[in-house]
UniProtKB/TrEMBL annotation:
PROSITE patterns per the UniProt record, alphabetical: CB, TYR_RECOMBINASE
Family statement: Belongs to the 'phage' integrase family.
Source organism superkingdom: Bacteria
Annotated Core-binding (CB) domain residues: 75-157
Name by which UniProt lists this protein: Tyrosine-type recombinase/integrase
Domain Tyr recombinase: 178-390
Length: 393
């Protein structure tokens, strides 16, 4: 192994030795923050396993550069990406879904524009121009790209590869003006009618209905829950005998790439775990579903496949689009029911109760993204103006 002097907090070239039972030993010289250089080693079933074990052991000792100690300002940008992704795995703080999303956004949105650059060339002006050009195509994509760029370049700053994070100085992204869209009561009833027509078997095309889509919509309308949260409701989460009846939102459905769809034992955020009193139309839909469940266990899902496995959110969305197309109704998504509920509750009882029902920590989120603006000015103004400017007799 190389005997060059190592920078503090870094390790040298990794060497490998055979061990008993066909296992492998990975070892490297590591210079700790006390300035002393030590030989550290770890054993694994294969070379790769031994290397991973060695890096995990070094991570427990102190901060270090996980991909190599040779990352500099002249390293290619893809080297930083690999460095950053490995660091995310070592920290192991992100959910699997978020980790996959970060890597996807980095590889799809950022790497194509920066792959031929060194870290020295990734400056404020280049990042600013990149994000502005991307924002012309999509504000959402630009925002996602900025997040992963900030994280990766921030790691380079913390490990003293770069002197500053360029993303801290780029122009602010401006979200295009938009108004949350919600359904009217008449539109809700038209959707119900379209689903009922399809579930009655009167539609000549599409998959054979199993009667769940209509009940799913009624639960979304009666709880404001996200589609994943609705599909994660179990028998134990439902109390139809109470006055009023209620549903506990305590999980969500997740589909990781290359893995089976499963129920996650917590919803999106801590405040999203809540118990919601439900209206009679939702309670009736739940009673019908409970009567059809063959699995008597408390953990049986209220909505599931014929084998009792979780439904995927994508399949429910696809089914809803198909039924709405047959009914000639456009623009309906599961999340629109959530906005519809927020708008209805806010109109009667105010935004704070709407935010509580949706499980939001900040009512500003509810106002900005979920409540349709009421364009009708208080009609009391007509009477006031009548008194002020009425024509003389």
């Amino acid at each position: 192994m190389s005997r060059q002097r190592l920078a503090v907090g870094t390790f040298g070239e990794i060497g490998y030795l055979p061990a008993a039972g066909g296992r492998s030993v990975a070892r490297a010289r590591y210079r700790g923050w006390d300035g002393r250089t030590r030989l550290v080693q770890a054993t694994g079933e294969t070379r790769k396993a031994a290397e991973r074990a060695l890096k995990a052991k070094l991570a427990d000792r102190s901060l270090f550069q996980p991909s190599s100690s040779r990352l500099t300002v002249d390293s290619p940008f893809p080297d930083l990406v690999a460095y950053w992704l490995e660091d995310l795995d070592l920290e192991d703080r992100l959910s699997k879904r978020t980790r996959q999303l970060y890597e996807q956004n980095m590889q799809r949105l950022v790497v194509p524009a920066f792959s031929n650059l060194t870290l020295r060339e990734v400056g404020v002006a280049r990042c600013d121009n990149f994000l502005k050009q991307l924002a012309k195509q999509s504000y959402s994509r630009a925002k996602q790209a900025r997040v992963v760029l900030r994280l990766a370049l921030g790691l380079a700053v913390r490990h003293e590869v770069l002197p500053r994070n360029p993303i801290d100085h780029v122009s602010r992204l401006h979200r295009p003006a938009s108004t949350p869209n919600a359904l009217t009561p008449a539109e809700v009833n038209a959707i119900r009618a379209g689903i009922a027509f399809w579930e009655a078997g009167r539609s000549p095309s599409g998959p054979r209905p199993d009667g769940q889509l209509g009940a799913i919509v009624e639960v979304m309308l009666g709880t404001s829950a996200r589609i994943g949260e609705v599909l994660a409701i179990r028998r134990r989460d439902v109390d139809i005998t109470a006055a009023p009846p209620s549903i506990r939102i305590a999980g969500t459905i997740v589909s990781h790439r290359g893995e089976p769809t499963v129920r996650q034992d917590h919803p999106k955020t801590a405040k999203s775990r809540r118990t919601v009193a439900i209206p009679s139309f939702t309670a009736e839909a739940v009673r019908r579903r409970l009567a059809k469940l063959e699995d008597p266990s408390l953990d049986a899902l209220l909505f599931c496949s014929r084998e009792g496995t979780p439904l995927t959110t994508n399949n429910v969305r696809r089914q809803l689009r198909h039924v709405m197309d047959l009914a000639g109704i456009t623009g309906v998504t599961p999340h629109m029911f959530r906005r519809t509920v927020a708008t209805a509750i806010s109109a009667v009882a105010g935004v704070d109760l709407a935010a509580e029902l949706l499980g939001h920590t900040d009512p500003k989120i509810t106002i900005q993204h979920y409540i349709r603006r009421n364009e009708m000015v208080n009609p009391a103004t007509a009477e006031m103006l009548e008194r002020a400017f009425a024509r003389d007799a």
